[in-house]
Amino acid sequence: xxxxxxxxxxxxxENLVFKDVSFKMDKGEIVCIKGKSGEGKTTLLRxxxxxxxxxxxxxxxxxxxxxxxxxxxxxxxxxxxxxxxFPHMTVMDNIVLAPLYLKKSxxxxxxxxxxxxxxxxGLKGKEDFYPYQLxxxxxxxxxxxxxxxxxxxxxxxxxxxSALDRETIGQISKIIEDLANKxxxxxxxxxxxxxxxxxAHRVIEISEGSLYEE
Amino acid sequence: MKVLKMLIPLTIEGLKITxxxxxxxxxxxxxxxxLVALMRRSKNKFLSKFIGIYIYIMRGTPLLLQLMFIYxxxxxxxxxxxxxxxxxxxxxxxxxNYTAYFAxxxxxxxxxxxxxxxxxxxxxxxxxxYTFSKIILPQVIKNVLPSIGNEVIxxxxxxxxxxxxxxxxxxxxxxxxxxxxxxxxxxxxxxFVYLIIIAILTKLLDKIELKFNYYR
Lengths: 214, 216
What we know:
The complex is a heterodimer of chains A (214) and B (216). Chain A is α/β, with parallel strands linked by helices and 214 residues long. Chain A is built from 6 helices and 10 strands; from the N terminus they run E-E-E-H-E-E-E-H-H-H-E-H-E-H-E-E. Chain B has a single domain, classed as MetI-like (MetI-like fold, Orthogonal Bundle), CATH 1.10.3720.10. Chain B has 8 helices and no strands. In chain B, helix 4 packs across helix 6. The chains are: A alpha/beta (214), B mainly alpha (216). At the A-B interface, helix 2 of A face helix 5 and helix 6 of B.
């Protein structure tokens, strides 16, 4: 199993978000997490990515519990709803920043891999553009490249379709499916049912603090 | 003519003081203020409070008083038993004062950066210090440049306060010439000297702002 979530609970003060939530994912799976606004979908993603601490339970990726993993060794990535690109860096610099910092491989290899991703994601020619010069869909693809260059086993998307038109959503579905075919486990938080029907292998619904598999 | 003959050499001497205080204060205060801003934002309550009090005192009292206190005030602090030289006193006062103002500007600037920038960086496995220097600070500098520019221009004019410790800057040069020849002209002349300095600085600041305009 690539990802095992075991009985995790999270609350903010008195406010319970979810309780004893568990699910498992295999590599290459695409799981969509649905739920109304405020049901804690995004909080769940944030917990998986160590942006929020869980109150109890375990999150295990590739046999390692993430709360015990040091920064920079997480095998999970996140594409934020608003992408959070670094506005003062070019597309290329946004993508290579982390691997260069983490010294994942030689500089030459990192730039080669970045060029490959830029090509695969249809961003060729945009290497030297700044985020403000890109469309929403292009920004999202930069965010995907930025996450993918670290080769995470699990990649999370927070509401990937919320700011895109139908045509762009089609392109992003294809990109996500390609990633899954290459073995990445994909978690998508969304309330876009049409998108879910199109892409999901499994659907999990979050409601009143619990998960229900459809 | 005689006035000018007296005024110009005095002005040149005074310029060394005016520009010296200006450049040294900036060179030390700007980097120091980033550190102070971070301490002000620190989760350590004691440190943050201590810096808060420092900033309160520096912004809450006139620079003129601070100059006097640092130069003459050693009597009030027992066991130091050491009087500062006037130049030391001037630099310490200016640096302490301007660091406080700059630090408040940087504090606001750091606070204005979207938390998503920190989170994106964290998710990518980048350390906090690297995130600050490579992702946060460059954006902060762009945002605070106009406010910093304002303070920089105020600093040029504040250098005239050094007269209180008997140091001769360009304004004092004008006063000397004016007293000797009973004429107001030297003050007009010095007014223009200030305007020229500010004009050059303004151009420079515009250039720096333009350099940061490569992104939005």
